[in-house]
Write a structure and sequence with these properties.
The complex is a heterodimer of chains A (325) and B (648). With 325 residues, chain A is mostly helical. Helix content of chain A is 71%, strand content 0%. By secondary structure, chain B is of the alpha/beta class. Chain B is globular and about 75 Å long. Classes of the chains: A mainly alpha (325), B alpha/beta (648). Chains A and B meet through helix 1, helix 10 and helix 11 of A and helix 2 and helix 7 of B.
């Protein structure tokens, strides 16, 4: 198992190099360093000198990936790619274009992101699995049918509708919680509760329908018939046998997102004014701040790789047949 | 005789079909009643109906089931649950899928025990010991995937016994098992039944199993019972035309060289809406009345059948052709296929760098000769490497050692493409081995196209379909429109398309019913005679081997332990494994008699025992056997045995 984890972590290195290269290429296909400087300096003070000065201060005056003017190794190292992107492998993210330290920014914004993402994940999983199990318990009845129709209806509606509808109904009409914003500490609860509920409602339709299919497929298996032939009650069959086996396919989709919870949600944070990493990323994209964008993409990729590794490890917990080697 | 279970007019419907249509029978305490029939005749549905565990689409439409005087169909679901396990225990066909894969065996048995007030680990341990699992304390904490098929079936039995059922329903309990393991499990069931006075409803398609186990027999056809008789009566004189044909379709040595009686057509669709006798379309003795009126039950001497004929009436079926005198040995003829020391080793990779830490010796140095126009049977139990050997000959898996020569030319990576016109393979599962998205014509033509065989492919396809007994206009259809037997015919036509000299047949009939198997075996015999084909017949079915093989090679754990003519190997076996294999086949005369049981399971080919691979299970094993693998010795000219203590 240890050998397996080590090997997988080694595989991560070429993946991260690739991610860095692609982010770099995509960003500089759309922008040039000159565009970035103009964007930052604003319309009024733009002179060629100011642009050159801005680029020199931030190291954007070098060639992108190959420096023909430099000597020896410098041809590869005296470049924007090497100076900016390679440093990230030491988790040194540098400063944003507005001069703030990116690492510190991430540390302070992680809290608000998690405050929304973690309850959404835990409560959402619980709600979805319970709803799907309920449908399976009443399978082939009108209740099951109605549930599936509801799922399809809910997944057909855009997530934006739930966000705006929720804000309008709960905040504007009922005045129960603020429309948007955030406060640190326990006060966060009243800001977080609506985004959490909206996220769960927006996601439950498609997940519950998928889980129901998995549960149904599992409950048609031979060993379930054996369990019934023993005389077990329907509840014992469902919870003792079906659920545990159905966890295996469900884990594939669930465990992988756990590490990425730190990254928050772009949409929800933007709409509810949560000062988390999701809104940080959106703002950086709007400001064409390459330093922040590539840092967020890099961290996201790292967390995703960790998530995949955790998925593999979690298989060994639920399925005794799986041995990593 | 008071009955324990009484079933009256049980009817199960699925949509418009009636898989079980008015079935009635009784089982006395301690008695074994066998339901016999081919697939799709409603045996399993009857059993699931008794348990009220029918699949969602099916429901019980009528009838009565009473167990010990209790009407099971009237019980509420909660009450029925107390009957399951305690009144009626059930074991299923596929031990591999019928146990929960992520739960330890101990917990699965414990669950059943907990429903009857527990007993816990100690009781579970007792049960595992009772079903003959070695080292039960360790096994209790293992998962099903750590056990062999036979052991899983023993666990299923232990689980069923946990509720101390009055009646055990065994649905094809040994169909998925090897013959030596089948013998062990049948023995176990019989012993447990005697000990506990348990009645048994045994569901099977295997006449041999019925002969070995049953007190009374009920034959099912198309959802109905057509004959009920005591075992003695049934095996002495089966009465119903269907029963008689089932017997006549069985291959065995006595029918060697002759044709098997087949039952034309296949089991009718159950939503057909029957007016007359359901078997009339396939019955050679059908009269006008058979198609008009449903036959009445007739009874004579305790034997009952549903037929317009009288019991004992009906024309005798064509008598078996007596064994032909063994053809003059054609050993001198140049061998078509020569295999020398063929080996297929799969590396076991472990660790950080995925280094090979060991080898699975699936095929470990086998040598065979096959002359043109002859049949060589490669016999062995599952996991012995026979299928891998077949694939290695065609280089469908790359051999890691040895040589294969076809008509003198060595087959290697460069010559195999051209040689595929001379050697073709037919696979075991006709449902999985035909591409479902291609029409039959395209499936057959594909081989000719890829090998660049000239000529009118359309005409050739029509000819091939005719050869295998299908209509030429079927070429435009898709595989799912055909039955299992028809699909195997298509697979054979596909193999024949490139006019090969040798067919490697990998268990071509093991997925088929007896009556369909007979059709395919007859077809293979005709093709051999007509086209001069040589067959390498890979199988575990001794009866089929006895019927058609000229030569036999017995494989155990990657090596050939005995080979010779069919007469030599099957009549005068010298290797103790061959002897055990032959003895384990259930006989129709029901005489278990001197059962020679091989204990235990075959060991893993990744870690074969030192010395002779068979010694841990061998009654003759000695120190020599533990020390070294025996060299081949001739017991008679052409009869080779690898055993230190070979002998009849």
């Amino acid at each position: 198992m240890l050998a397996y984890i080590l090997r997988r972590l080694l595989y991560a290195i070429p993946i991260l190099v690739g991610v860095n290269l692609i982010t770099f290429a995509l960003f500089f296909v759309v922008n040039t360093p000159d565009d970035m400087a103009r964007m930052q300096l604003g319309v009024k003070r733009v002179t060629p000198e100011a642009i050159e000065k801005w680029k020199a201060e931030r190291g954007y005056d070098k060639p992108l990936v190959w420096n023909g003017a430099a000597e020896g190794l410098g041809k590869a190292t005296e470049t924007i790619f090497f100076k900016k992107s390679v440093r990230m492998f030491a988790f040194d993210f540098g400063r944003a274009d507005d001069g703030r330290d990116i690492a510190r920014e991430i540390a302070t914004r992680m809290g608000p992101s998690l405050a929304v993402a973690l309850p959404t994940f835990v409560l959402g999983l619980f709600a979805t699995v319970s709803f799907a199990l309920l449908l399976v318990y009443f399978r082939a009845t009108y209740l099951d049918f109605a549930g599936v129709v509801l799922c399809v209806a809910m997944m057909s509606i855009s997530g934006l509708f739930y966000i705006i509808g929720g804000q309008w109904l709960v905040s504007k009409i009922w005045h129960l919680v603020p429309i948007s914003g955030y406060a640190p500490g326990l006060d966060a609860a009243k800001f977080v509760i609506l985004p959490v509920i909206v996220s769960i409602v927006a996601g439950i339709g498609s997940s519950a329908r998928w889980y129901r299919t998995i549960f149904l497929e599992e409950s048609g298996r031979d060993y379930v018939r054996t369990a019934r032939a023993k005389g077990l009650s329907e509840r014992a069959v469902l919870f003792g046998h079906v659920l545990r086996n159905a966890l295996i396919p469900i884990l594939t989709g669930v465990v992988v997102v756990i590490p990425t919870l730190f990254m928050g949600s772009l949409l929800i944070e933007a709409f509810f004014g949560i000062p988390g990493l999701g809104s940080y990323t959106i703002d950086a994209i709007n400001a064409q701040d390459f330093a922040v964008v590539r840092a967020m993409v890099f961290i996201g990729s790292c967390l995703y790789i960790v998530g995949l590794l955790l998925t593999d490890i979690s298989y060994t917990w639920v399925d005794p047949r799986v041995r990593l080697g | 005789m008071s009955s324990l279970l009484s079933v009256r007019d049980l009817t199960v419907v699925i949509g418009a079909g009636r898989p079980v249509d008015g079935v009635s029978f009784d089982i006395a305490p301690g008695e074994t009643f066998a339901l016999l029939g081919e697939s799709g005749c409603g045996k399993s549905m009857t059993a699931l109906g008794l348990m009220r565990l029918l699949p969602a689409a099916a429901r019980i439409a009528g009838g009565a089931v009473s167990l010990d005087g209790r009407d099971l169909l009237a019980l509420a679901e909660a009450e029925m649950r107390t009957v399951r396990g305690a009144g009626l225990g059930m074991i299923f066909q596929e031990p591999a899928t019928s146990l929960n894969p992520v739960m330890t065996v101990g917990r699965q048995i414990g669950e059943a025990l907990a429903l009857r007030g527990g007993g816990g680990r100690a009781r579970a341990l007792e049960l595992l010991a009772a079903v003959g699992i070695p080292d039960p304390a360790r096994r209790l904490d293992e998962y099903p995937f750590q056990m062999s098929g036979g052991m899983k079936q023993r666990v299923m039995i232990a689980m069923a016994l946990a509720g101390e059922p009055a009646l055990l329903i065994a649905d094809e309990p040994t169909t998925a098992l090897d013959v030596t393991i089948q013998a062990q499990v049948l023995d176990l069931l019989k012993g447990l039944q005697r000990e506990r006075g348990m009645a048994m409803l045994l569901i099977t398609h295997d006449l041999g199993v019925v002969a070995r186990m049953a007190d009374r027999v009920g034959v099912m056809y198309a959802g109905q019972l057509v004959e009920v008789a005591s075992r003695e009566r049934f095996f002495a004189a089966p009465a119903h035309p269907y029963s008689r044909r089932l017997f006549a379709a069985l291959p065995d040595a006595a029918r060697r060289g002759g044709r098997l009686t087949t039952i034309p057509g296949s089991v009718p669709r159950l939503d057909a809406g029957f007016t007359g006798c359901r078997f009339a379309e396939r019955c050679g003795e059908a009269m006008a009345v058979c198609r008009r009126e449903a036959p009445p039950w007739r009874e004579a001497g305790g034997q009952r059948m549903r037929c317009h004929l009288d019991i004992g009436g009906g024309a005798p079926l064509a008598p078996a052709v007596p064994a032909a005198a063994p053809a003059a040995e054609v050993e001198a003829a140049a061998a078509l296929l020569e295999i020398d020391d063929l080996a297929v080793h799969f590396p076991i990779r472990r660790g950080f760098l995925k280094r090979a830490v060991g080898q699975v010796r699936a095929v470990d140095g086998i040598s065979l000769r096959l002359a043109p126009g002859r049949t060589l049977a490669l016999v062995g139990e599952s996991g012995c490497g026979k299928t891998t050997a077949g694939k290695a000959i065609l280089r469908l898996v790359a051999p890691t050692g040895g040589q294969v020569r076809l008509a003198g030319a060595t087959l290697d990576a460069t010559t195999i493409a051209a040689a595929r016109a001379s050697v073709q393979m037919v696979f075991q599962d006709p449902f999985g081995s035909l591409n479902p998205r291609l029409r039959i014509g395209a499936i057959i033509a594909e081989g000719m196209e890829s090998l660049g065989i000239p000529g009118d492919h359309g005409a050739r396809i029509a000819e091939l379909l005719g050869q295998v007994g299908l209509a030429a206009d079927m070429a435009g259809r898709y595989p799912h429109e055909f039955s299992g037997g028809q699909r195997q015919r298509i697979a054979i036509a596909r193999a024949l398309a490139v006019a090969p000299k040798l067919l490697v047949l990998d268990e071509p009939t093991s997925a088929l019913d007896v009556s369909v198997q007979a059709q395919i075996l007859n077809l293979l015999a005709d093709l051999q005679k007509g086209l001069g084909l040589a067959y390498l017949f890979i199988t575990h079915n001794i009866a089929v081997v006895d019927y058609l093989a000229d030569e036999v090679a017995v494989m155990y754990l990657g090596r050939i332990v005995e080979r010779g003519s069919a007469e030599q190997v099957l009549r005068k076996p010298h290797h103790p494994y061959t002897q055990a294999l032959l003895a384990a086949v259930p006989r129709l005369d029901g005489r278990a008699g001197e059962q020679l049981l091989v204990p235990g399971d075959p060991p893993s080919p990744a870690n074969p025992p030192a010395g002779c691979h068979f010694h841990p299970r061998c009654p003759r094993a000695s120190e020599t056997c533990r020390a070294a693998y025996p060299q081949a010795a001739e017991a008679a000219p052409g009869h080779e045995v690898r055993c230190w203590h070979a002998g009849p």
